[in-house]
Amino acid sequence: MPLWSVHGNGRTVEPGRVVAPGERLNWPATFAMGVQHVVAMFGATFLVPTITGFPVSTTLLFSGLGTLLFLVVTRNKLPSYLGSSFAFIAPVTAATASAGMGSALAGIVAVGVLLALVGLLVQFAGLGWVDRLMPPVVAGAIVALIGFNLAPVAWDSFAVDAVTATVTLAAVILFAVLFKGFLGRISIFLGVLVGYAFAAVRGYFGTADPQTGKTPAEVIAEAPWLGLPEFHVPDFVSPGTWSAIAMFLPVVLVLVAENVGHVRGVATMTDPSVNRHTGRALLADGLATTLAGAGGGSGTTTYGENIGVMAATRVYSTAVYWIAGSVAILLAFSPKIGAVFNSIPAGVLGGVTTALYGLIGIIGIKIWVDNRVDFSRPVNQYTAAVALVIGIAGFTMQWEGFEFGGIVLGTVAALVIYHVGNLIARARRSGADDGGPIPAVGPLGGDPRD
């Protein structure tokens, strides 16, 4: 029995229908759509290793391998591409600076193992306990503080070449509002291309690196077309490793939210029964992240960019993702492609990350809006307020040789304030507790009616 049945005539999507995960179009169309998904994920996936200093080709390799592993674990029933997760940028940057790349990779492995365990628990016990531990006000605060905690990193890159950074940022915004559909969803990738070209015109590629004495153009020219990716191994024995790992633990909450959202999105657009694979999705992403960290790649997550492509094309075939993952693996064996990405100027990264980190923060705020969080309640007010200030200011705390950064402290603050605050407020009946979503007044989207 074939893995996929052919949808309709194999060339077009029938009106009012979608190509289900177990279906496919003809192989030429399936291959073309697989390549399109690689283009969709590329802009975001290569940015994470470029920003953190990880090898781009290695991250690309584990991105492709992780996608294929995801398809196997979810029994070929859940279409998804696993690209680099932006939630890892802050802890990886901090861990690399304080303890080295090996410690950062150890943190990625720890996140992957913990996420896999969460997946197993969800598969057998359901999602209810996650919703109770991390209600919308807490989840939104954690996601938002991860993005806003990165603001100083964006400024460091922006300040290197403010002119190029400004042009790049303007291009990202312009493409996002000018185009609709697929081009609008890859506005960050297009903005990088504009900034890259602008820097080239200004002579960036003729400027030699003071350490190597080579210009970016020379480095690209000397890189071979074919070669093995650069592998690294995690370091669990260095003194700073376990302190660094603590900074990574809140990322698990973000990955849970992203994976659950992805599954629900696909289920909404295809078949509600897809929701049954939530636990397997979490397990698969956990295994993929563990594999990536063990070999020198960035942690992975399900990609919203690729959901956008599926929504635009109405093609949810998992066959497309087998093509996409395989193409990504092939691209990973080209050092020249890695050299091109490593040559992206700091100003370009500064412009892109200014938008990107802010968008991560806005995603957290969107969680509040979508769930109609009641901010007239003091518990909700302080849960969000304290967590955000801790994250944005970059609070740190030393304890028994461990250093906890703003993301860890902000996450702990959100959880403690919410759950302890609600416990006290409800015992005292003070009305300060989280009373649940604000009820809709009148028809949604219009003025109240009598």
Describe this structure in words.
The protein is mainly α and 450 residues long. The protein has one domain (26-368). Helices cover 66% and strands 4% of the residues. The strands form three sheets. A two-stranded parallel ribbon has the order 1-2. α7 (151-160) packs across α8. The longest helix has 29 residues, at 241-269. The protein is globular. Keywords: Membrane, Transmembrane, Transmembrane helix, Transport. It is a multi-pass membrane protein. It holds the Pfam family Xan_ur_permease. GO terms for molecular function: xanthine transmembrane transporter activity.
Quick structural gist:
Belongs to the nucleobase:cation symporter-2 (NCS2) (TC 2.A.40) family. This protein is mainly alpha-helical and 450 residues long.
Features:
about 450 residues, two-stranded parallel sheet, two-stranded antiparallel sheet, disordered C terminus, transmembrane helix, transport
The main β sheet shows up as: 2 strands, parallel
Distance between the termini: 60 Å
- List the secondary-structure elements in sequence, H or E: EEHHEHHHHHHHHHHHEHHHHHEEH
Number of H- or I-type helical stretches: 19
Family: Belongs to the nucleobase:cation symporter-2 (NCS2) (TC 2.A.40) family.
Main location: membrane
Transmembrane segments: 54-73, 80-99, 105-130, 137-155, 161-179, 186-205, 236-257, 319-341, 347-369, 381-399, 405-425
InterPro entries: NCS2
